[in-house]
Structures are given as C-alpha cells and as structure tokens.
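Shipment paperwork, digital attachment
Item: protein structure file
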Amino acid sequence: MSILSQKLREKRQQRLDDETGCEPKPWGGQLRVALVYPNHYYHAMSNLGFQAVYQLIQQRDDCLCERFFLPDRDELELLEKLQRPLLSMESERSLTDFDVIAFSLSFENDYIHLAQIFDLGRLPMWREQRSADDPLIIAGGICAFLNPEPLADIIDLFVIGDAEVLLPPLLDQINDQSDGRQAPRQQLLEQFARQDGYYVPQFYHPRYAEDGTIAAIDVDGDACLPVKRCWLDDLNDSACRSVLRTPHTAFGTMSLVEVSRGCSRGCRFCATGFVYLPPREKTAATVMAQLQPSLCSGATAGLVGAAVSDYSALDEVTEQVLEAESDVSVASLRIDTITRDQVQTLKQSGQKTLALAPEAGSQRMRDLINKNLTEQQIVAAVTLLAAEGILNLKLYFLIGLPTEDERDVDELLTLTRRIREIWIEQQKPLGRLGTITLSVNPFVPKAMTPFQWCAMDGQADLKRKIAVIRKQINRLSNTELQVESLRSAQLQAVLARGDRRIGQILPELAAGKNLKAACRQHHLDPEFYAQRQRHHDEILPWQLIDSGVDRSYLWNEYQKALQGKLTRPCQNNCDRCGVCQL
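Attachment content:
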C-alpha cells in the first residue's frame, strides 16, 4: 500500500473511531444503498435528516447502507494523485458497487458538488447517459420538495415528502420480496410515477414559450400531475434523532432529537414553515424515551425543530433532562415566547450565546413577512437575556425584502443601536461585556411560499444596503457583522427558482466558472430566474409538485403582505391553507 493510500485510509479510520452509534454492517447480499451528502463529512454529520435516513435504511435486514461525502481539499488531492474513485466511509467501496445511490439535498448551493461526486464516482451525471446496469439515482430532502427541476435531468426518482412514510415502501418495491431479486428498472419507475410522493422526471416534459417561461408540462401515460407530497401524521412514529455522534462537528457529541416538525407561524419568506405543514409534535414521553440512552451527567440534549420555543412540552422535557443531570441546548428562541426559566436553564447548561430572529428592523417589514413581532417585544427579550447574564447575542436579519427602502434599513440600524445600549446597560454591573453579532442575509424568494412570485433584490441595491449597514456597525464596539456572500445568494436564487435548463450549468460551476459565465455558455440569463417578478398565472417550474398548500392561499398571503396585513398562526385541522383537508 502506498503512503498516499495509507493517509486516506487513516483519515477514514479516524472518523470511524471517533464516531459512536450504529455499527457498519458486513458486506453481503442485501440491497446496497449508498447515502450521499453533497458536502463535507462534518456538515453531513450535523444534519439530523441525513442521520434519520441512514438509520431507516440500516435497521432493515434486507438493506445495507454506507455513506459518501464530498472530499475535503486534502482528500481530493490524494484521490487525484492516486487516480482513485470516491469510496464509502464504511468499507471503502465505490459508488458503482451499490444498487441505489440516494442523495440528501438540504441546500441548493450543494448542487454544484454533484458534478464532482459523479466524476469521482466514475458515473455519468446525466440520466440519459446511464444504463440500466448503473445504480438507481434517487434524491430526497427539503430541496426535493421545493423545486426538483434543476436536477431533473440527473436524478432518476425524487422522494417528495417525509422519509418515514416514503422510504420503506420504496425500498420494498425496489427489493422485490417475491423472488428476492430487484424488479426491472423501467418497470419500477413507471410504478413509482403512478404513486403519490414519488416524482420520476423522465415522464414529464416542459415546453417553453418564446419569452422563456413554461408554456405547458406534458406527461407520459398515467404519471401523477401534480405529484403530491406525503407526510407523517404522527411524529411520535419518527425516530429522528442522533444515531451517530462525532466530536468534530458543530454539535460535538450532543444528542440531538427532533421535538417538532413544521411551524404554525406562517412567516411568508420561510420555505421550511410552509413545506413541512401541518405542524406536528412529539410527546414529552417520546422525546425522553429517545433521549434516555444518552442522558447522563455531563451530556447535552439538543432539541431540534422549526420552532422549538413553540413546542408545547418544552418545559416538561427540559425539567426531566435536568433531573437526569444532563444539559439542554436549543439553536434559537422565539422572541415573543421566551421565558426567564428557559433562559436560566440554558445558561445553567453552559450556553453563552443565544440567537434571536427579528428578521427585519422596521415594523412595516415585520408585518410584511408576518413576523407578528413588535419592537417592544424584541426589546423585552433582549433585556431578559442580558439581565440573566447570557454573554453573547446573535441577531438574524433579512435585507432586500419586497418593497424595502432606505427607511427600513435605517430602522434596522436604529433597532440595533437600541439593543446594544440595553446590552451594555444590563451587562456592565456583571463586570463583562459580550458580543452582539448581526447575521444579515439577502432575501432569496423560495418556491412553495407566498413570496414565490417575487423578484430578488438586484445586486447593486443589495451592495448599497450592505455598505450602509457595514459603515454604521463598524462604528459600534462589541458589535460584529456577518453578511452572506451576494454571489452565493444569487446562485442560491437561480438554483432555487430554476427550471430544467439551469441544471446544464452545474458542470461549469463545479469547474470554477462564475454564474454569469456558466449561464452565458448555455444562453441562459441568471436575472431571468433570480430578479424577475413572476405573474399570477405563470406556470412555475415547481408547480408539478403539490406541497398540500393551496396556490390560491399563497397568492392571498402575498397580497396581504403587500398591504401590511397580518395572518394569525394556523390551528390544527383548520380549513385555511388546504393541508389539513388532504
């Protein structure tokens, strides 16, 4: 074995040695599934959905699952020098050794890594270039629910909905139980295309008008149109939690458990809030049963959900975790529901930084996005955190929201200065002064939300607004500014709102070309996808997916946003958006 090969093997082995949780299965005659996360190992291992899918496959007697990740720079250099393919984490097998390759798609910007993964895996990226002897390529995750079209010429089958509902029957049908053999590829795909929850793009053919918009979508045979998203009715039936832990991720060896899925708040910019409706919760008993194996002195339970502060059993779970001499951690707290007891518990558990999400500085913008927050509530929450001795504060803001102007940006800065004054006033008696961090991100309109028709703010306007914010924040001590790359945000918008034609640019992006150059090579205009306002009746690329939320409801919410009108949080089994009627 060469020295370079040994380095690769040692790195892989070190990761396995550091992990605690499931043991790899011996290579055998089961259905072999390669689970691929198109980013680096440490990003993947912080993703609870990725871990849940791994566990769902691995717990089956008739399946074997091994993991693949985007190589980091050192690994990539070694692979290129050795001219070796990408190999699995568990047993160093190639992608071509597997029956099924399953991609977990959480972030649109990870799409550019697919070309690299296919190349390293010695597999054609385009579906039409693969044969029936190649692995079946499937994909799931929130990006598959929102808009699968940019990857429609790559992926054989998209899973549209919750893995707990859709993955078991998919594996059952692939792994034909009647004779122990896999069913023929084309027969399988035709079978899935007739079922809710599975989108098989080869049976759908968009036609384009002269102006570049979609004129119609033709469908082969009796494939479903639209393809309905499927979800798990009772979240207590989900075992979504950490099954593998490693000390090298953002969450370290923290035991993560999903306590809720979906959000009732209806923030109009939030894709997660709409695509995971209806809101569902686990009972305290279920959460504690799933945490129990990892609770001990010094352990930390991380509670995960779209709106953890709204979890009805939050205090009950927190109390039981503390009684087990373990700590509790949450990513952020809802400004209007935060309590002193919750803050004290998190401080006792060692959290030095807490995050709040006002999302917008002006009341006009907060009403537009249906945040249902007043400045008084924001100030009260900040005062509580500071008075209880939380050292650092992180604030999340969006810029470039629809109709935003200079006055809204000025009010964001005014609110920040007021928050800083409160922070200093409350913390000076404690003899220390932490840091306030503003995380300011460009607004990207997302599919399946009321803002899916909106244009993204232009790059010049965003640069000007950020320059104004940066100039003012740089004058404030103990205050930092984090801004997402505008290039990254523009790329995200194009990939999130693109049609099938956008998939053509992925190899160029992977090779290092910028977005404009990649689009120009294929006679595409990035502003057509990102900065163009869509009209009410336009056929949207993602329209062939039915999230369960009525399109008319989303449009009405968009109109209410422009009028500054608020919508109350949804209630279970109401008839407002259409989800609960399905």
